[in-house]
Write a structure and sequence with these properties.
alpha+beta; two-stranded parallel sheet
């Protein structure tokens, strides 16, 4: 499987296509393991997903990248707290790609990171939106991704992703 096919397979999948496990997973080493105490909420992924149709394709989401991210559209939500979280893509257990997603509204919504620039609505490649929608639906099934996407004034565009 080549990389474009891999990403396309994920972007076109539905939440029901994935087997999901949650909890503290994939501990990252602390700088000084002898004196540091690991905080599971900071150093682990919260979700691991295996593609049911091809178990070689897996993802992990939730490891904290940055807290209290200052993005203009975060202020549009009732809870302005936002953070960047890693979404790791694996093939045969090898990390093949890493993307960051924005957790907004105090963790209630997951959105793609828009392209850099001052444009409003902020532009996001369509395939990147599809992947963020998938992760949002898997991890927050009671919240509507499209409502969050529209409320943040994001706009899907036809642009190749990932670059």
């Amino acid at each position: 499987m080549d990389f474009p096919t891999y990403i396309d397979t994920i972007a076109r999948s539905a939440p029901a296509d994935w087997n999901v496990e949650s909890g503290p997973l994939f501990f990252q080493p602390s700088p000084d393991a002898s004196s540091a105490v690991l905080d599971a909420s900071v150093s682990t992924h919260a979700f691991v997903m295996a593609f049911r149709k091809n178990l070689c394709v897996t993802m992990a989401y939730g490891m904290l990248c940055h807290t209290n991210v200052e993005v203009e559209f975060a202020r549009f939500f009732p809870n302005p707290v936002s953070s960047l979280r890693y979404l790791d893509f694996f093939f045969n257990s090898a990390l093949v790609f890493r993307e960051t997603l924005i957790s907004v509204d105090g963790g209630q919504g997951i959105l793609p990171v828009p392209n850099p620039g001052p444009t409003q609505p902020w532009e996001v490649p369509r395939k990147k939106c599809a992947v963020a929608r998938l992760v949002h639906q898997i991890t927050n099934p009671m919240r509507d991704f499209d409502d969050y996407f529209a409320h943040a004034q994001l706009k899907a565009i036809d642009e190749y992703w990932p670059l």
